[in-house]
Specification:
heterodimer, A: globular, B: alpha/beta, eight-stranded mixed β-sheet, four-stranded antiparallel β-sheet, 34% helix, globular, AAA+_ATPase (chain B), ABC transporter ATP-binding protein (chain B)
């Protein structure tokens, strides 16, 4: 139980331009059918998403499977071509780049994957993996790279003696540290963590999240932190974006959004998180969503969430709600009923006010 | 107290692999009463799944039960023939696994898979089996059960497939349901649905449950009792409220502290447990958690602590359990 908590208030982010600025991002996958493989429709995996991530900021991204989280991440990193929209990395348009220009931009935005065993070449030693990341991105002078590999290992809390080990000789937590070191090799400004702790044991998750927080603070990194674990997202992220069927339904400061969800879907996600408190669990009223996420190939008309929303009205079935500011706060919500007395806020979800410190 | 349904006594299991052998379960004892829900909580390699696979007689060939008894209503399952075991497994004791994708046969309709079980175990006729299969699908909350019996697994969502697996497990009205991380692969919203379903079914069918998981959060609202495993041993066992209110083993304390909570103010850093669990080449002669434990003293690396009373109904395997408990009772942080 190391890493004693030092509750220092996070300094307010400086008013610098965003590191990543995403506007109206769309990624559709065509559906082809019939003899001529004609396009008969599209899976609208990401359907008009906009957000910024500031310098040193962490934006959490949550949503169920099928919400488009991973496709969004891949589109932002230009690991896939986008259908429409714009992604600016420090002011530079990424969606239209090709070849060498794209490679040099990619060095500044990196990704940490969910499964470190699958994302590390089993035949390469840890040292070779990191050396390759330096060589490919042409980081620094070749002569200095062996030393840099050692520095990277120390940076993520690994003993440089592990240099000659293979991935299978490491524990899950150690492998994820290597995954992080590889992402940091080209000295990126922006790192996407796609379910980077999901495959790890509980006690190791905390170690990795602490490491990510420390690296962010020390190196001034910006993160897009994708996770299904809302408690972890609230812990690490400054702001959170909630994705449903390829669209942002709510975006706002992490704590505020978790305490007073503006969108019923956010409320439902929070309500589904089991609390490690038997007393609370026994008394808690839950908002359990019926059914699954509808197909992104055929999203419901009106508000996309209306088919599962217990609070939906006639208006929700026909009119698509715009993402708009909630009562002058820093919060964006796409719900017709977000201004009214929100019934989903009376839910007995675990919130800090129940347990004053 | 009524006689236990299942009683495991001093179970010891070894794996002999190419990379040497591993002591996976090192003297595990626990009991489950009729209708009771017990959680086995532990991280990978803690021995929680291996313990329950031994109960079901489903260990892989490289594993060997070295000692112990698995008493099912007084009969030792470890001494039954495969044929005798089949009368218990699937019928009186049923199991649900983590991955609904790979546990259903993709080439057979859901109806065929359900009726096969019903006809084999209960000897039902074709028509009766089909009627019962539709009832089971309705029981686990699949809409239009009659029609959906004729569909193949790929037509169902992940959450629905897990419901179908639960329906399969419930087919023969088992007295005990063993669930091995059945919600781990699911979204939190679908997990909440499945947990609700299991709570409802448990009341409705009066069946006992052993819920195997790495997630302490999931079990808080689900079970009566929790056994926390580490290094192939049970390190703490307590009624669920007592365990969460005043944990007595440093590992339990560490697991609880490592999870950020929605109902607590944010802290800058999480309290993590240093190091990683190690697999054991031989049964431990000292506390297996000592290398990672902030409470460890010299004695901890010399002497294996026994599981002994640590609270009103709690037991912990820690030389300093009384001190740990005094601390957690004093700092009621929750």
């Amino acid at each position: 139980m190391s890493d004693m908590p030092t509750p220092t208030p996070t300094p307010a982010p400086e008013p610098t331009p965003p590191v990543i600025s995403v506007r109206g991002l769309v990624k559709h996958f065509p559906i082809r059918s019939g003899l001529l493989r004609r396009t008969t429709g599209a899976v609208r995996a990401v359907d008009g998403v906009s957000f910024d991530v500031g310098a040193g900021e962490t934006l959490g991204l949550v949503g169920e499977s099928g919400s488009g989280k991973s496709t969004l991440a891949r589109a932002v990193l230009r690991l896939t071509d986008v259908t429409d929209g714009s992604v600016l990395l420090e002011g530079e348009e990424v969606t239209t780049l090709h070849g060498g220009a794209l490679r040099s931009v990619r060095a500044r935005m990196q990704m940490v994957f969910q499964d470190p065993l699958a994302s590390l070449n089993p035949r390469m030693t840890i040292g070779a993996v990191l050396r390759e990341a330096l060589d490919v991105n042409d980081v620094g002078a070749a002569a200095g790279r062996p030393a840099r590999v050692r520095e990277l290992l120390e940076l993520v809390g690994l003993d440089p003696a592990l240099l000659n080990r293979y991935p299978h000789q490491l524990s899950g937590g150690q492998r994820q540290r290597v995954g992080i070191a590889r992402a940091l090799a080209p000295e990126p400004r922006f790192v996407v963590c796609d379910e980077a702790i999901a495959a790890l044991d509980v006690s190791i998750q905390a170690q990795i999240v602490n490491l990510l927080a420390q690296l962010r603070d020390d190196l001034g990194l910006s993160y897009l932190f994708i996770s299904h674990d809302l408690s972890m997202v609230r812990h690490l992220a400054d702001r959170v974006a909630v994705l449903y069927l390829g669209q942002v339904v709510e975006l706002g400061p992490a704590e505020e959004l978790c305490e007073r969800p503006g969108h019923p879907y956010t409320a439902a996600l929070l309500s589904a998180v089991p609390s490690p408190d038997p007393e609370l669990e026994a008394s808690r009223a839950r908002l359990v969503l019926r059914g699954d996420v509808p197909s992104p190939a055929d999203p419901p008309p009106g508000c996309r969430f209306h088919t599962r929303c217990p609070f939906a009205t006639d208006r929700c079935r026909v009119e698509e709600p715009a993402l708009r500011e909630l009562d002058g706060s820093a919060r964006l919500v796409a719900c017709h009923h977000a201004d009214a007395e929100r019934p989903w806020q009376r839910l007995d979800a675990p919130r800090p006010e129940r347990h004053p410190q | 107290m009524t006689a236990p349904l299942l009683e495991v006594r001093d179970l010891r299991v070894r794996f002999d692999g190419d990379d040497g052998s591993v002591s996976a379960v090192n003297g595990v004892s626990f009991a489950v009463a009729p209708g009771e829900a017990l959680a086995l909580v532990g991280e990978s390699g803690s021995g929680k799944s291996v313990s329950m696979l031994s109960v079901m007689g489903l260990l892989p060939p490289v594993a060997r039960v070295e000692a112990g008894e698995v008493l099912w209503r007084g009969r030792d399952l470890l001494r039954l023939s495969e044929r005798e075991l089949q009368g218990v497994r699937g019928r009186e004791v049923a199991m649900v696994y983590q991955d609904p994708q790979s546990s259903l046969n993709p080439a057979l309709t859901v109806g065929t898979q359900l009726t096969m079980v019903l006809r084999h175990h209960l000897g039902l006729g074709r028509r009766a089996a089909r009627a019962r299969a539709a009832e089971l699908l309705a029981l686990v909350g699949i809409p239009e059960p009659q029609r959906r019996l004729d569909e193949y697994p790929h037509r169902f969502s992940g959450g629905q497939r897990q419901r179908i697996l639960i329906a399969l497990a419930l087919a023969c009205d088992p007295r005990l349901l063993i669930a091995d991380e059945p919600t781990t692969a699911l979204d939190v919203t679908i997990q909440a649905q499945i947990l609700d379903l299991v709570r409802r079914l448990r009341e409705q069918l009066e069946m006992a449950i052993v819920w195997i998981t790495h997630d302490l959060g999931v079990v808080a609202g689900l079970v009566d009792r929790v056994a926390v495993m580490y290094g192939g041993t049970i390190v703490e066992e307590a009624p669920v409220r007592e365990l969460f209110a005043a944990p007595s083993h440093p590992y339990t304390v560490g697991l609880l502290a490592a999870m950020p909570r929605l109902d607590e103010p944010r802290s800058a850093r999480l309290r993590s447990i240093p190091g990683a669990p190690q697999s054991l080449a031989a049964p431990p002669v000292a506390c297996p958690f000592a290398p990672r434990c902030e409470w460890a003293v010299a004695r901890c690396s010399e002497e294996l602590p026994a599981l002994r009373p640590a609270g009103p109904l709690a037991r912990a395997a820690c030389h300093r359990a009384d001190e740990v408990r005094a601390r957690t009772e004093a700092t009621v942080t929750r």
